[in-house]
Amino acid sequence: MVKIAFNTPTAVQKEEARQDVEALLSRTVRTQILTGKELRVATQEKEGSSGRCMLTLLGLSFILAGLIVGGACIYKYFMPKSTIYRGEMCFFDSEDPANSLRGGEPNFLPVTEEADIREDDNIAIIDVPVPSFSDSDPAAIIHDFEKGMTAYLDLLLGNCYLMPLNTSIVMPPKNLVELFGKLASGRYLPQTYVVREDLVAVEEIRDVSNLGIFIYQLCNNRKSFRLRRRDLLLGFNKRAIDKCWKIRHFPNEFIVETKICQE
Ligand SMILES: *[C@@H]1O[C@H](CO)[C@@H](O)[C@H](O)[C@H]1NC(C)=O
Questions:
Q1: Which atom of ligand 1 is least distant from the CA of 229?
Q2: How far is the CA of 196 from the centre of ligand 1 (A)?
Q3: What whole-number percentage of the chain has pLDDT above 70?
Q4: Alpha-carbon distance 108 to 31, whole Å?
Q5: What local confidence, expressed as pLDDT, does residue 6 receive?
Q6: Residue 92: per-residue pLDDT
Q7: Ligand 1: centre distance to CA 78 (Å)
Q8: What pLDDT band is residue 2 in, cutting at 50, 70 and 90?
Q9: Which residues cross the membrane?
Q10: DSSP code for 129
Q11: 23-33, pLDDT tens digit by residue?
């Protein structure tokens, strides 16, 4: 200000010009700063909205993942692990009169099974359909390794027959799964021999509710009988036993012919 007082007109003009330039410069700078700010604000808004979008997506995927895991848990809880296996094995029946003929082709009989094997429950539920070439009865068989029981439901008679599980005949579920795997892959020679069981229905069982849920479901509301091996029967009226039938199945790498007789 003091300087201005001594300024010549040219100096004043110069000063004005300088001020003009400064004003211009400062305006430009301000505009630049403003533009920068606006830009920054604009980019921030953009980042903000995409961030919100990401969060929403993340949240949604968490909810979805939760639903999937929850659903899987509920499914696993309510639907026990089980797989249905199908298999066929053939056997040579030396007692079949057709096979005792000399020079005749050996007559192999097929046995087909459908098995629901539940390793978690230690149980095998075997369905024997109506056989096409033999006199065996269709049946549903339960081998319950937890309860140590076998139940035969003869589907022609509608009766249940129960006996202790014979672990030297029946393979554990894990090995049965392997056997069916081998049968399915065709790597296994499905020709085998027969083991015969001769059983007698000795007494009626009125209450099957203490034999496990699986046997209960199979045999509840049906006539149920306890089976005994004929060779272990002492003092039993053997002549009174007249009706017999067979169930052929494979609880192992061989066929078991279960003959059940009843008065
Ligand atoms: C299991 O079955 C086999 C073959 O039939 C027999 O030799 C064995 O005595 C049976 N075991 C029991 C406990 O019945």
A1: 14
A2: 10
A3: 70
A4: 100
A5: 47
A6: 82
A7: 36
A8: very low
A9: 54-74
A10: P
A11: 655 565 555 55
Is 77 a residue whose pLDDT tops 70? no
Record the tokens describing residue 91, joined without a space.
């056997």
Q: Global pTM?
A: 0.68
Query: Is the torsion defined by CA of 203, 206, 209, 214 positive or negative?
Result: positive
Mutate to test the pocket of ligand 1, among 150, 162, 167, 169 (most ligand atoms within 8 A of CB): 169
Residue 10 has pLDDT above 60, yes or no: no
Pocket of ligand 1 (CB under 6 A): 166, 168-169, 195, 197
CA–centroid distance, 232 to ligand 1, in Å, is 11
Distance 166 CA to ligand 1 centre (A): 6
> Which atom of ligand 1 is closest in space to residue 256's alpha carbon?
5
